[in-house]
């Protein structure tokens, strides 16, 4: 991370950005209240050879030690993520976001009934699965695009933004058309091609932690989305697989 001086001009920031970009690294400019920081994600040796410390306007160059880069608070001035989804604020310290709805969209009557119930209970968004990953190949896998249309119908009546799972890159256009928030399920947390496409769709992404994944792996998965220029990422603690047989997953409070 390159930290500019408080007096650094826009031209000096641009000069550093262009020099970094010429090496092929991913560059992220982050203006702050007092200073501007520039993240450089790529080969640290190549960045080190640029001699950035001697450039006009540069205060210091700080290596980011964590395996995840864009998701690191070191790169974000330690500020909590905060953004809006169709007028509903997510993140920050003053809001709590409740997302609720049916596991699977099955019918218009079911979807509207549940949508009204979660709206009346104070939910901020409606979740529902139109495309569902199933353990058994013989189980119901969702209605597909007709299910997305039912979610849009529920959104029109209740005003709740729609959260739905993105399961396959071939569904990208349909998901982008109907979803307000794209959900990446626990099974697909490390489906890196899917994460990259999700990052390019221009919608907030709800990323679930894989059932056997560490927190570092979750944050590195988030980096795949963030590097596509999408900074609106929500992390979901799905739970982990343990020897407990009473439930499918156990909430990892120790993490």
CATH architecture tag of the largest domain: Alpha-Beta Barrel
Task: Label the structural class.
Answer: alpha/beta
State the domain count: 2
Q: Strand-and-helix sequence, N→C?
A: EHEEHEEEEHEHEHEHEHE
CATH class placement of the largest domain? Alpha Beta
Main sheet characteristics: 6 strands, parallel
Helical residues, percent: 25-40%
Shape: elongated
What are the low-pLDDT stretches, counting only 5+ consecutive residues below 50?
none
- CATH structural fold name of the largest domain: TIM Barrel
Brief characterization of the structure:
With 255 residues, the chain is an alpha/beta fold.
Description:
It is a single chain. The chain is of the alpha/beta class. It has 2 domains: 62 residues, Alpha-Beta Plaits (2-Layer Sandwich), CATH 3.30.70; 155 residues, Alpha-Beta Barrel (TIM Barrel). The protein contains 7 helices and 12 strands. It has a 6-stranded parallel sheet with strand order 7-8-9-10-11-12. A 4-stranded antiparallel sheet has the order 2-3-1-4, with helices on one face. The two termini are 27 Å apart. The model has no long low-confidence stretch (mean pLDDT 90).
From the structure above, extract its key features.
28% helix, 255 residues, 12 strands, four-stranded antiparallel β-sheet, Alpha-Beta Plaits, alpha/beta, 2 domains
């Amino acid at each position: 991370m390159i930290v500019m001086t408080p007096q650094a001009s826009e031209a000096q920031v641009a000069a550093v950005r262009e020099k970094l970009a010429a090496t092929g690294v991913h560059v992220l400019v982050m203006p702050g209240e007092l200073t501007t920081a520039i993240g450089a994600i790529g080969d640290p040796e190549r960045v080190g050879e640029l001699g950035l410390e001697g450039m006009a306007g540069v205060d210091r160059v700080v290596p980011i030690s964590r395996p995840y880069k864009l998701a690191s608070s070191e790169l974000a001035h330690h500020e909590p993520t905060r953004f809006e989804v169709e007028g509903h604020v997510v993140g920050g310290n003053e809001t709590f976001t409740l997302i609720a709805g049916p596991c699977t969209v099955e019918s218009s009557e079911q979807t509207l009934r549940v949508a009204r119930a979660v709206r009346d209970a104070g939910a901020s968004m409606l979740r529902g699965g139109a495309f569902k990953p199933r353990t058994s190949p013989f189980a119901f896998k969702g209605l597909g695009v007709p299910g997305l249309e039912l979610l849009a119908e529920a959104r029109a009546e209740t005003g709740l933004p729609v959260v739905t799972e993105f399961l396959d890159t071939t569904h990208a256009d349909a998901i982008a058309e109907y979803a307000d928030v794209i959900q990446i399920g626990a099974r697909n947390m490390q489906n890196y091609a899917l994460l990259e496409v999700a990052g390019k769709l221009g919608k907030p992404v709800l990323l679930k932690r894989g059932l056997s994944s560490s927190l570092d792996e979750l944050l590195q998965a988030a980096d795949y989305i963030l590097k596509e220029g999408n900074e609106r990422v929500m992390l979901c603690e799905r739970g982990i697989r343990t020897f407990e047989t009473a439930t499918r997953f156990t909430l990892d409070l120790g993490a």
